[in-house]
């Protein structure tokens, strides 16, 4: 699909099933997608199409009775020491390696900002905990100690005391070449300082004050900003936003989406936005993957998708979006309903609802193929 240097995440043939008493829910059936480095990619589709299961599969957060049964999730990570790209299959990683990756290299912001911050810990402490878990704070501790000592020199101190303080500053500066391991108290102070800096970066008003507050004391928009600060605290290469703005009002939603794009440019994170809102995709994403019933239906640049949808399902989604210049009594809709994934349709999973379905569609599952330059679609009878 593209050069490995340009791609940060690839998913091939991903199958995730849920083994329930009623039967096996085939939630993901061979999902294919990729995320380019520095892009904002939208993952769209109806409720229940597998968007969130895809996100949880990437982070190996699928819990029983769910199980990832097949596929590859290739993460092309940047090695800070060698300055080269290394490819790892997340599904082949040990549990310890996944824990080290989750939150540090790949972070996620979940849907409901009222649910995910821990209600019994202060906001700043929760962000600081992530930083302490994944970041080397040795130089941060030295920075903080030197800053505090330099602040004390601004006060009226006796010459002997000033000399002792300056000597201590020189000593701490000499440790930068080989900084010692800090004790827990110093590390926590340095992490909290960085947490406040992250809250400022996401444009949180009165960041230091917010850091000392509990989640219930914040509005929905402020909680969402705090979650974004927590996710970005370790400068991840990939940020997954799982319906991150759904619970917010329209004004705050616009602010959060604008903030995400600003932060992407600032720290170089690649973003995957999971949504059912085509307006959010049009506003923020430069690439789109359309999912239907656990499969990838279409994948292309955002402008191309809106101008030239090739999959009948994508065309149906776009037709159902209300338009300001049209005066309609009733919006068009895709006939039928989403299939039961315990008993999914044979062949193409969309064929019972498709106006262009043939016998081939009922019998053979279409592969995701490049039907036009830069435009992939899984359909036996693509439009256009």
Features:
single chain; 384 residues; alpha/beta; Rossmann fold; 8-stranded mixed β-sheet; elongated
Structure summary:
This protein is α/β, with parallel strands linked by helices. Among the domains are: 1-105 and 236-305 and 317-344 and 357-369, Rossmann fold (3-Layer(aba) Sandwich), CATH 3.40.50; 138-181.
Q: Your description of this structure?
A:
With 384 residues, the chain is an alpha/beta fold. Among the domains are: 1-105 and 236-305 and 317-344 and 357-369, Rossmann fold (3-Layer(aba) Sandwich), CATH 3.40.50; 138-181. Helices cover 36% and strands 22% of the residues. The chain has 13 helices and twelve strands. The strands form two sheets. The protein has an eight-stranded mixed sheet, sandwiched between helices. Strands 2-1-4-5 form a four-stranded antiparallel sheet, covered by helices on one side. Helix 4 runs antiparallel to helix 5, helix 6 crosses helix 8 (220-232) and helix 8 packs parallel to helix 9 (250-267). The protein is elongated.
For the biggest sheet, the summary is: 8 strands, mixed
What form results from the Cα inertia axes?
elongated
Q: State the CATH superfamily name of the domain at 1-105 and 236-305 and 317-344 and 357-369.
A: P-loop containing nucleotide triphosphate hydrolases
Protein structure class: alpha/beta
Low-confidence spans: pLDDT under 50, at least 5 residues?
none
């Amino acid at each position: 699909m593209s050069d490995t240097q340009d791609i940060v995440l690839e998913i091939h043939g991903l199958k995730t099933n849920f083994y329930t008493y009623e039967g096996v829910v085939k939630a993901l059936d061979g999902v294919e997608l990729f995320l380019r480095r520095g892009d904002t990619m939208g993952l769209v589709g109806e409720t229940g199409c597998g968007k969130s299961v895809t996100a949880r599969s990437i982070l190996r957060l699928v819990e029983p009775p769910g199980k990832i049964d097949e596929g590859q999730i290739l993460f092309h990570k940047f090695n800070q020491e060698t300055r080269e790209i290394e490819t790892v299959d997340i599904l082949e990683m040990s549990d310890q390696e996944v824990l080290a990756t989750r939150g540090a290299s790949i972070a996620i912001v979940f849907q409901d900002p009222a649910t995910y911050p821990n209600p019994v810990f202060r906001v700043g402490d929760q962000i600081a905990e992530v930083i302490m878990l994944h970041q080397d704070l040795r130089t941060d501790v030295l920075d903080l100690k030197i800053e505090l000592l330099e602040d004390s020199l601004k006060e009226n101190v006796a010459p002997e005391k000033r000399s002792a303080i300056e000597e201590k500053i020189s000593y701490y500066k000499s440790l930068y070449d080989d900084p010692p391991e800090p004790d827990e108290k110093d590390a926590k102070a340095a992490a909290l300082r960085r947490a406040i800096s992250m809250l400022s970066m996401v444009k949180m008003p009165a960041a230091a004050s917010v850091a000392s507050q509990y989640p219930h004391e914040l509005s929905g928009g402020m909680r969402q900003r705090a979650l974004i600060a927590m996710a970005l605290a370790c400068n991840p290469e990939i940020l997954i936003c799982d319906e991150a703005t759904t619970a917010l009002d329209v004004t705050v939603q616009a602010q959060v989406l604008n903030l995400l794009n600003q932060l992407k440019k600032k720290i170089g994170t690649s973003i995957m936005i999971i949504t059912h809102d085509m307006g959010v995709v049009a506003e923020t994403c430069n690439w789109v993957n359309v999912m239907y019933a656990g499969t990838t239906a279409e994948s292309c640049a955002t402008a191309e998708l809106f101008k030239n949808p090739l999959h009948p399902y994508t065309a149906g989604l776009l037709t159902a979006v209300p338009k300001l210049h049209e005066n309609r009594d009733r919006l068009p809709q895709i006939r039928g309903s989403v299939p039961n994934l315990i008993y999914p349709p044979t062949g193409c999973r969309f064929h019972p609802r498709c106006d262009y379905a043939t016998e081939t569609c009922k019998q053979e599952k279409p592969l995701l193929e490049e039907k036009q330059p830069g435009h992939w679609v899984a359909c036996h009878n693509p439009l256009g």
